[in-house]
């Protein structure tokens, strides 16, 4: 099921009043739901000592959301300078930040090393010599290549630009040791929106097998393995949620097996983004136009600058029309934005109840890779973000972009290279 019944029950009756105060379009996030998912995750993996989630900041980089993550004891998975800045401004300490970049620049390495540094997760063996101040604690991203098949969003590991290959992994840690590393982690990220729990169990097994191999070759002990993000959420009504209870039980057993064989086991880290916030956000927009040509179209006051996923991946996002939940889906619509791109469609040939101008439309599951992925192409600006607090308040947590924001990059000192 897309959005939870609880979020829907608390949100839908409030939407007309929220619309009056804040005006569409907006993303709205559910504090109670995010906290509940966080608590579920912690409980599921409580059998693995040192378990920790590092929230993937890119999924929903709003500071109020990040504050919730911090309050739940989570760290941050950052991959750029602005993400590092935001995590540090919220008080994240070096070991609260996993810096998982790729194609990393010298400037990024220098920034990562500031303020006591962070957990540096290197994407390639060639980067070892480029790290200006080599940290004591180092991690590498492992890419299994042909050893694993991939999934739709992230692709086959063999074709993915990320990580060190299986053949390089022992050598990577050997060279890191030569540069002074004394503490070690191992990372992988091979799934995206994965709903088959067994794929994630196999990922945990894989990363522990690689850890075992490196430990045996170099006589080191890993402090943690990081299985990455990619836990899926059901975007479609007929999809079933990830079986977290069975998954965590099987993963915990794999860690127990490692501990039984070696007398120690690394902690498990993960960096879920979508699973933490995806279902706890919705994009609310108003229907402002309808047209009937070769197809029937409903035009919203939001466009793909608010939510790129349908255009980028052909993703399904469930849609409700406020007040028409019980009405028969007797129409077939393309639900579209205003961008001059024919893929600016939130839904294609979707069965929906008849929609009139002024109807409020709720697009589900916009809580991850939604607002964050937006852009300004065609002068279409990103909408505001709201939070439905656990106590029922609705709070503006980011204003909409303005025309002044759009022109802000014209504010610079003239600079010309003479002929
Ligand atoms: C995008 C990303 C994540 C989060 O992925 P989700 O699908 O949102 O869980 C985690 N780690 C890395 C390195 C990523 O690039």
TrEMBL record:
All copies of domain Orn/DAP/Arg decarboxylase 2 N-terminal, residue ranges: 50-277
Arranged from A to Z, the UniProt key words for this protein are: Decarboxylase, Lyase, Pyridoxal phosphate
- The name of this protein is Diaminopimelate decarboxylase
Q: Where is the Orn/DAP/Arg decarboxylase 2 C-terminal domain?
A: 279-367
Q: Could you say which cofactors this protein requires?
A: pyridoxal 5'-phosphate
Task: Kindly indicate whether the keyword Lyase belongs to this entry.
Answer: yes
Alphabetized InterPro entries for the sequence: DAP_deCOOHase_LysA, De-COase2_C, De-COase2_N, De-COase2_pyr-phos_BS
Name the source organism. Geomonas oryzisoli
User: What domain of life is recorded for the organism?
Assistant: Bacteria
Q: Which Pfam families match?
A: Orn_Arg_deC_N, Orn_DAP_Arg_deC
E.C. no: 4.1.1.20
As one GO molecular function, the record gives: diaminopimelate decarboxylase activity
């Amino acid at each position: 099921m897309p959005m939870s019944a609880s979020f829907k029950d608390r949100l839908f009756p409030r939407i007309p009043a929220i619309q009056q105060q804040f005006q569409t379009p907006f993303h709205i996030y559910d504090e109670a739901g995010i906290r509940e998912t966080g608590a579920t995750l912690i409980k599921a993996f409580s059998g693995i000592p040192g378990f920790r989630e590092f929230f993937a900041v890119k999924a929903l980089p709003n500071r109020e959301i990040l504050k919730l993550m911090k309050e739940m004891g989570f760290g941050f998975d950052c991959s750029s300078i602005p993400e590092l800045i935001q995590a540090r401004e919220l008080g994240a300490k070096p070991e609260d930040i996993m810096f998982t970049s790729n194609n990393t620049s010298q400037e990024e390495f220098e920034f990562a090393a500031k303020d006591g540094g962070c957990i540096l997760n290197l994407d390639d063996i060639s980067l070892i010599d480029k790290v200006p101040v080599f940290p004591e604690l180092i991690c590498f991203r492992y890419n299994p290549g042909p050893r694993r098949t991939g999934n739709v969003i992230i692709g086959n590991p063999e074709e993915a630009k990320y990580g060190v290959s299986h053949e390089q992994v022992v050598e990577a840690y050997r060279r890191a040791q030569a540069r002074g590393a004394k503490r070690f982690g191992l990372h992988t990220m091979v799934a995206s929106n994965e709903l088959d729990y067994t794929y994630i169990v196999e990922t945990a097994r894989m990363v522990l097998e690689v850890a075992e191999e490196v430990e045996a070759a170099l006589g080191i002990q890993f402090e943690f393995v990081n299985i990455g993000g990619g836990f899926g959420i059901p975007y479609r009504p007929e999809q079933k949620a990830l079986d977290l209870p069975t998954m965590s039980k099987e993963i915990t057993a794999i860690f127990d097996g490692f501990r039984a064989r070696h007398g120690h086991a690394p902690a498990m880290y993960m960096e879920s983004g979508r699973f933490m916030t995806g279902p706890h956000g919705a994009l609310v927009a108003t229907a402002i136009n309808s047209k009937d040509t070769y197809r029937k179209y409903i035009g919203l006051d939001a466009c793909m600058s608010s939510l790129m996923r349908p255009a980028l991946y052909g993703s399904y996002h469930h849609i409700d029309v406020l007040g028409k939940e019980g009405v028969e889906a007797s129409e077939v619509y393309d639900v579209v934005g205003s961008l001059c791109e024919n893929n600016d469609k939130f839904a294609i040939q979707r069965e929906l109840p008849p929609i009139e101008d002024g109807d409020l439309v709720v697009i589900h599951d916009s809580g991850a890779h939604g607002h964050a992925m937006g852009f300004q192409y065609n002068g279409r600006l990103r909408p505001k973000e709201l939070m439905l607090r656990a106590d029922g308040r609705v709070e503006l947590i980011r204003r909409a972009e303005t025309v002044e924001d759009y022109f802000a990059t014209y504010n610079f000192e003239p600079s010309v290279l003479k002929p």
